[in-house]
Design goal:
Blueprint (H helix, E strand, L loop, with lengths): L1 H21 L6 H21 L5 H24 L5 H20 L3
Helix pairs in contact: 1-2, 1-3, 3-4
Subcellular location: Cell membrane
Membrane topology: Multi-pass membrane protein
InterPro entries: EmrE-like (IPR037185), Small_drug/metabolite_transptr (IPR000390), Small_multidrug_res (IPR045324)
């Protein structure tokens, strides 16, 4: 169940980041409310995930996968560019996540 909570935390983390960008400094009400829901949901679900997962595994996966998801959805929603440098960084993050997941049982 911890991994499901972590996945939900990641989804809310992405919603938070995209909402924060769209809120334009909390000047847009709807985007600001989405941002608040994202941050509350993210923190709630990461706290549930960390009841079982080590913080040294769960937190970096939450932030890393959330960052990759934010870049991907930022490109889709806000038409931000995905450069080759960003792709290299994605791969590094994903490699780190795979490494941490493989160490979760150690």
């Amino acid at each position: 169940m911890a991994w499901i909570y972590l996945l939900l935390a990641i989804i809310f983390e992405i919603i938070f980041a995209l909402g924060a960008s769209a809120s334009q400094g909390f000047t847009k009400l709807k985007a600001s409310l989405i941002t608040l829901v994202g941050i509350v949901g993210g923190i709630y679900f990461i706290s549930l995930a960390l009841k079982t997962l080590d913080v040294s595994v769960g937190y970096p996966i939450w932030t890393g996968v959330g960052a990759v998801g934010t870049v991907i959805f930022g490109a889709l929603i806000f038409k931000e560019k995905i450069t080759s440098a960003k792709v290299v960084c994605f791969l590094a993050i994903i490699g780190g996540v795979i490494g941490l997941k493989s160490l979760a049982g150690v």
